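Hey all, quick one. A colleague (J.T.) asked me to put the guanosine-5'-diphosphate job into the tracker so the inputs and the structure tokens live in one place instead of scattered across chat threads. No bug as far as I know, just bookkeeping. Sequence used:
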Amino acid sequence: MESKTPRDRSINPKLKNLRRNINFDIDQLFEGIRKGDIVHLSKAITLIESTHPKHTEIARKLIDRCLPFSGDSIRIGITGTPGVGKSTFIESYGSFLIENGTKIAVLTIDPTSQISKGSILGDKTRMEKLSASEMAFIRPSPAGDSLGGVARKTRETIILCEAAGFKRILIETVGVGQSETAVHSMVDLFLLLLLPGGGDELQGIKRGIMEMADIVLVNKTDDDRVNLAKETRRDYKNAMHLLPAKENGWPVKVLNTSGLHGIGIKELEEEVQGFEALTKSNQSFNLKRQNQSSYWLEESLNQQLLDTFKNKDGIKELLETLKTQVTDHKISPFHAAELLIKEFLKQ
Ligand code: GDP
């Protein structure tokens, strides 16, 4: 028999049957989720990920039902280049949280999963300890044809996880591309993992990502890297002063951690709680969530308008024709867009 990795076990084993069976009992799923039942939760997330129109409809209803029971968590984004130690850190931090009685969900947004099929985040056996715990729910990145689609599904998954009683949602992403922006638009707090030594250019960290971070972790502060890691921490602390102050009044923290040896994990949790206390007391916590919801409304509207537009009879063909004319400099892009809209409104 094929051996199962802990990761496989965290996914609904009836996944294949699910795709065929489109008769779901929403009441049953909803009640299961509210009881914190992992099988029901997994099933519901698979519905969210499905592209079958019937699934989409059930998923939408289920999300709306879960919505009033969501929100009671801290959503934490975690990023850093491959190899910086994200999964080891999540295993360590997650275990710490669980030991303190906090149920955690670990989700990932991995843009490489839809490009190469073999994803950067997904091809390792990761977080074995967490996978074995009933207090943790681990779900790999949903597949999708666009980052926007993947991000939307993850955001909806957060709602279900919260309704199922998970109090910390850790959302991991690789430190490449646009996925940080997507994660940033759905989390309360953003963690950036860095390695000891080397400036941000060397670590491939873009300034935009540095600016998103609420807490920076100089990870792998262990063995013969301890001194270097402390120096790196000082450097980043100084660099942080040069960045514009955050509107929420939170001064960015830089900590030394070692996911492997559990160093700095307790201190990190203290900072996370400090962040929560500050941003809740000055209302910026809620304000950020409200802004994120508006952002997602606009995003969804844009996406749905675009889909409706492109799927309308004749538009695709006209778009192709006009594209050629635009690249041949026969018509300006602006004019072409105008013609397309006219055609769309005419129908
Ligand atoms: P990810 O790609 O960012 O998820 O990184 P991993 O967690 O898979 O770790 C990459 C490698 O670094 C593995 O060989 C880990 O054992 C090692 N590693 C991870 N965290 C630490 C740490 O805190 N200290 C040390 N020394 N090694 C670590």
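Adding what we noticed when we looked at it: Residues 80, 82-88, 219-220, 222-223, 258-260 surround guanosine-5'-diphosphate (CB under 6 Å). The first strand starts at residue 74 and ends at 79.
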